Amino acid sequence: MCKDVVHEFFDFGRHPLSQAFLSAEDAAVPGREYRYRLAIGVCESCRMVQLLEEIPRERKFHRGYPYHSSGSTVMHRHFTEIGRRFLGTELSGDDPLLVEIGSNDGVTLRTVAEAGVRQLGFEPTGTGGAGRMHRAFFDAGSAREVRAAEGPADVIYSANTVCDIADIAEVFAGADALLTADGVLVFEDPYWGEIIERTSFDQIYDEHFYFFTASSVATTAARFGFELVDVERLPVHGGQLRYWLARSGRRAPAPAVAEVLAEEEARGLTSAETLKSFAATLLGIGDDLVALLRKLSAEGHSIVGYGATAKSSTVLNYCGIGPDLLPFICDTTPAKHGTVTPGSHIPVREAAAFRSPYPDYALLLAWNHAEEIQANEEEFRAAGGKWILYVPEVRIV
């Protein structure tokens, strides 16, 4: 985390780990769930938005980690496309190498491997999938080990992982040790600008330690001899930015860099006024959501949750939503079936439970996949069912 002064601007209270799904019996054991203070602040010097408490990485990412990126058709397509893009650009030279930090079940690696290009994924959880895997956390030491065995990498790519690494210096030290002189570090993560715009506060949970802006990435990269040379807006996961970094002076920055930096300055994304307004709006959304669920329940309507996501841990625990308001949550991940949600202890059931029978209302906790989910659940709407959303405000659709 940043070594400079970090000013706190919101405290969500004590929370469990977002992916710590337990059996109902284990969850009932006092002290069984690890808790930490979920509070967020901004660095005085680099303006990096970040958590105030660091959770040991071995607690968050371990064998049995339940998230698989290929579970979503949209995300499968997204990772296939970036793999093909690398093949046509950065990986078009002589015997190139792609290294992925947090490769999960290997969609990007598979795309590159099928083209006959060397690839290697850093994946400490041991998640099964395509591609060659190095079961280790990415840092300077493990990067040097790979360099000695494989040679330098032309691309180091990461999706939804760099923001999880509290010791950001190790990311850049590892990139410096492993990349070729003209290689690129490319990563994509939730964008603080979108979180502010949507008040998508459930993006704030234990796995996301940093909440990047182009400005904070550029400032941080410069400290380690790297430069932000391009930036792209991505629609996935509620709005992300993809950052392209190279060693300072090796590439001319694309026009998009100056454009996004100027926009961020004009918006004041990390100003005291913006952060204060964000906190006030967040409070209102939490109150509105609980009030709506209580009203519908009092009227005798059936309500269930849809998507036992990591981000749902924040909204459920912060708002105090439990089985009294949501009898169960449906999810497509087999490993979560028969468990209860972290902290809130709402039973997680298979997707088929959503249809037998359909509820009157469904709280869409996986709102970042709303379009895909609603298209797959057209019969729910046809049966008179309605969705409850809370980003960017509480509403029924």
Automatic annotation (TrEMBL):
Which molecular function term from Gene Ontology is one that the record holds? methyltransferase activity
Q: Does the keyword Methyltransferase apply?
A: yes
Q: Which domain of life is it from?
A: Bacteria
Gene3D superfamilies in the record, alphabetically?
6.10.250.3100, Methyltransferase, zinc-binding domain (6.20.50.110), NAD(P)-binding Rossmann-like Domain (3.40.50.720), Vaccinia Virus protein VP39 (3.40.50.150)
Name a Pfam family for this protein: Methyltransf_13
KW Glycosyltransferase (keyword) present: no
Show where the C-methyltransferase domain sits: 235-392
- Keywords, ordered alphabetically: Methyltransferase, Transferase
Q: Which GO terms describe its biological process?
A: methylation
Kindly list the residue ranges recorded as spanning the membrane: none
Q: Which residues form the Methyltransferase putative zinc binding domain?
A: 3-61
Instruction: State the protein's name.
Output: Class I SAM-dependent methyltransferase
Species: Streptomyces spiramenti
